[in-house]
Design brief:
Elements: H1 17-31, H2 35-49, H3 51-58, H4 62-68, H5 77-86
Organism: Trinickia symbiotica
Pfam families: dnstrm_HI1420 (PF21716)
GO molecular function, one term: DNA binding
């Protein structure tokens, strides 16, 4: 008997604003210098929230948003800032722990 698996989609499990915020926060902590990793996490949250609405709020086309947040490449920082703002988030720098 063969085992059947399905692809896990984290966007299906991000149910509220707090979970989405914590997910993005964890992604920033884990990403290191990998901007594509952050883009993928933002894409997960955007899909959980509704990609069409996020694209509209960011002033981007839905197709370009999917490409930018696929995790296959690092999008422009300006695109990431637009998405972060459209998701109702804000970046705030804080010193690294010594």
């Amino acid at each position: 008997m063969a085992t059947t698996t399905t692809r896990y989609d984290v966007a299906e499990h991000l149910r509220n604003e707090e979970e989405m915020r914590l997910y993005i926060e964890a992604a920033f902590e884990e990403a290191g210098d990998d901007a594509a990793f952050i883009a993928k996490a933002l894409g997960d949250v955007a899909r959980a929230r509704g990609m069409t609405q996020v694209a509209r709020d960011a002033g981007l086309s839905r197709e370009s948003l999917y490409k930018a947040l696929s995790g296959e490449r690092s999008p422009d920082f300006s695109t990431m800032l637009k998405v972060i703002r459209a998701l109702g988030l804000r970046l705030h720098p804080e010193p690294l722990s010594a």
